[in-house]
Structure formats: C-alpha cells, structure tokens
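Section: Multi-chain targets

For targets with more than one molecule, the full set of components is provided together so that the structure can be written out for the assembly as a whole rather than chain by chain. Components appear in the order listed by the source. The example entry contains two components.
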Amino acid sequence: MEEERSSGVIGRLLGGVNRTMRRLLFTFMSSGPIPQHIAFIMDGNRRFAKKWKLEEGAGHKAGFLALMSVLKYCYEVGVKYVTVYAFSLDNFNRRPDEVQYVMDIMHEKIEGFLKELDMVNRYGVRVLFIGDLNRLDEPVRVAAEKAMEATAKNTKTYLLVCVAYTSSHEIPRAIYEACQEKSGLALALNQNGKNIDGIVNVNVVIKVVDLEKHMYMGVVPDPDILVRSSGETRLSNFLLWQSTNCLLYSPKALWPEMGFWQVVWGILKYQRSYYYLEKKKKQA
Amino acid sequence: MRYNINDLLSSILAFELFLRSGYGCGRGFSEDILQDIDGKICGQNDNIVFILLWHVIHLIVRVIYLAQEVLRAIESYLVTNGFVTTYQPLNLNRVKYLGIVIDSDEARQISEVIQLLDWLSAIGVKKVCLYDREGVLKKSKEVLVERFSSAKLSNEDSKIDPIFTKTQMQFEFVSISDGKEAVAKAANLLFNKYYLDGDTEKPFFTEADLSNALKTLGVVEPDPDLLFIYGPARCHLGFPAWRIRYTEIVHMGPLKHKKYGLILKAIHKYTKVKQNYGS
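Its structure, encoded as tokens over all components, is:
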C-alpha cells in the first residue's frame, strides 16, 4: 500500500512538473504569432499497427489517443480551429470490414463524447462534422448530428472532423449550391422585372466568393498549417482549395506517434514563415 | 535592469536580421524585424523575458536550419559529382509531368529559372508546368522561348497560354488566375448550360462535370505527379487546387540556392513512393 501511494504521489508530481514545463514553453511561444487554424491528415495508423505487430484495428485506436493529445496541446497553446481528416470518400474503397471497423470506432467515440457534454461545453468546444454525411452509416450520422446540435452554441474553440470528405467532392458541390442560389435569385429578379417565363436572366455571374460561401469549410477561416503525419508529402484531396497560403508540414512520425514535439515544431515553423505568408495573403 | 534586457533583445534581433538577410528571406523581412523590435521593446515589462526566450528559441532553430542547409549543400556536391550514386539511374517514366511553383519575387531572376530548366532538361524531364502566383513567368515567356530556341508555338488561338513544344521539353505556364478564378469561370459555364432554361433537370455536379467544363476553357493538361516548390516556405501559393489531389509536394528552398544533386534526390525519392489513393 505504501509503495502504491508513493508511486501515485511521484506520478502526480512528475505529471504536474510536465504540465508546468509544457505551459511555460507554450507561454514563450505565444510571444510570437500563434496559428488560428491547424489541419491534420491522420495518416499512418495501419503502418503503426504493422510496425508494432498489433492486431488489425489497434492502430486506429492508438490513433484516437494521439488525436486527443494533439487536440489538448493545440487548444492549450491557443489554436482556435482544429480540423482533422478522419475519413476520406476514397477510403470507402478499402475492405468492407475495415470500413465497418472505422465506422464502429467513430460511432463509439461520438457516443462517448456525447456522454461528456458537460465538460465539453465547459471548455466551449464546438464540434462540426464536415463532408457528405449521407454516405455514413445511419447510426454514425445520427450521432454526428446530435453532437453538432449539442455543441452548436459553443464559440471558444472549434473541432472540425472531415468524414466522407474530399476536395474533389466539395468543389463541384459548392458550384452546384452556388448555381442553385443564383438561379433562385435570378428567378426572383425576373419576376419583379421583365416577364420572361421560366428563363433565367443570363447576366447572373458566379464569383469566387460565392463558391467559398458554399464550401463545406466556408464556416471557418482557411488553415494556417496543414500537417500530414508519417512523412508523406501529398495532400490526398484534403483542403486543396483552402490551402492557398497555408504552410505544409510533414513530420516523419506516424499518426499514433504524433504528440507534443510535432505540434511545437509545426508552430515554430509557422512562426518562421509568418511574415512571408502574411505578405502573400495581403497580395491576394 | 529593463535597459539591459532591451539591449540584449536588440542584439539578438540584430543577429537574427543578419542571419535572415544572409539566407535569402528577402528585404521585406528586415522591415518586419524592425517593426518587431519596436513592438516588443515597447511591450509590457513582465513579458520581456518571455519575448527574449522566444527570440533565443528561434535563434537556435535558425542555427539548426543553417546546419541542415550546409549538410544539404555537401550532399548535393557529392551527388552532382558522382561520389554518391544512390540516386542513379533515375526511373523518369514515373515523372510524367513535373510541376514547379516559384515565388514570384524569386521568379524575376530569369537567369536562375533558365538554369533550373536547363538542369531539368539535362536530367531528362519532358513536361514541366511552371507556376508563379503573379504571372511573372508568363510575362517572361518570350525570354524563355528565345533561350530554348527550337521551341515553336502551338495552339495559338487557345484562350489560355499556349503550350510550347520543344524537342526536349514541353512547358505550361500557370498563374493565380488559372486557379480559383478558372473554377469560377467553369461554374458560370455550368450555370449557363443547365440553369438558363428553367425547365431542364439540374444535375448534382460531379468531378467529371467540373473537369469537362475546365477542358472547354482550355485546361487540358494532366495533374502534375510531382511538385517542386522554390521559395522561402513550403506552401503551394495557389497552384490550381483540383490539379494537385495526389501530387507529391517537395520544398526545395529558395531558387537562388537550388542544387542539382537535391533535384536528383527528390525525383528518386518520388519514384520510390507507393500511393494507395485512399484504399
């Protein structure tokens, strides 16, 4: 009993020291610009499971733990928006049992999240699920919509989870929505103006701002850093439209290995390139 | 005490300025650093230690990057002069289309761009897409044509910049107006096609619809397999979004510090990459 108590005390002490050191480092780093929005491509879960000879699916579970740590560090340092690429439309091409496994994990985690709503609302986290939610299994979609509704009033920090998402779906969809909006507008104008039955005014013009308004990601500012774990250097159809002035960072760590030092290094890289990227944003 | 800390901060900032100006971050940065000095020194006294430490951290980071740069220069020298043969022979069949993003300010150094293209031509790259945000390279195409003198124009009546064919390399010139603006034009094309007549069925637009609309506007080239970024930061600066879905993106550093050996290494690394495309 004595031993357990002392290791408990030592554990808590070390944890406390760790937390204080981390907060101190984040305070130093806050002397420079802190990114408002960081996006993560959570790549490498399956490779992690293979590397450590774990059972299939264990990589995704480890990946979820890494996600929780990374989110904690981002919110502690002062990042307001965090976007994660949880499931791509391309991932539906995987083996059905693997797809089902990921859907089950998502369902389990969202249900778990809904049980901790008090704490979530205390921290002011708003959760948004971004993508073609109709492609998800019914229970997952319902749980996701419940989570979005339950946190809709929070404004302190945002967590955007991209599921059933690709930019090559997002962009044509935004065009479609913009066309729908413009045609409605044009019809209304026609009804007030000239009497041209059923024919839409050809002078309606769709601009870039109209498209951006209808993007899934139009609800938040563009990301400042886009992180892809496991050292891969491609964007894999993620936030292609929104990454115009975004710093791309590819740490070699697999997603379940991601943590504190990758977040710190990513922010330091952002601070190094801050003036250059701000200049580019102003030139646009 | 406050005066001494301010002195120390000024010295650190001055040293940072020296390092940055030496390593190609451009004149703009020196102005920003001076603003930094003004802002931070006039800040609150109790934060000045943290600000000092922040500058020390960034100094250390800068020294790490400098050391990395020196190592890369040595590696490039060894590869270029044949001491390291890991990256030969190159399997260029995998690099069907190479994209190059150059920071517009750096692209104004046309001699550097020409040297880069000469190296790529020597390596054996056949098709190159040159992008810079402001269209500086588009304005310099006559100079580039003159340099690669066997080039001849084709598609002169096309709406976007024509593709130059040469016995060795084909070029495409792209700028920011070929990015989001081109998608907006495609959106208007689709709107006019499907929404003009109120009675026709309005399909839900897919990737194929957008690709076809863009083809009508003259965007006929394929997606680049590999994208080199020459500039201060690893950022694609607005390269047309729908063309880099699965493109490998490599940051090569500032254009004036380009290295032949590292180009070979980057191409070699790309040929070894295995993509699952999500599955």
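The first helix of chain B runs from residue 2 to 22.
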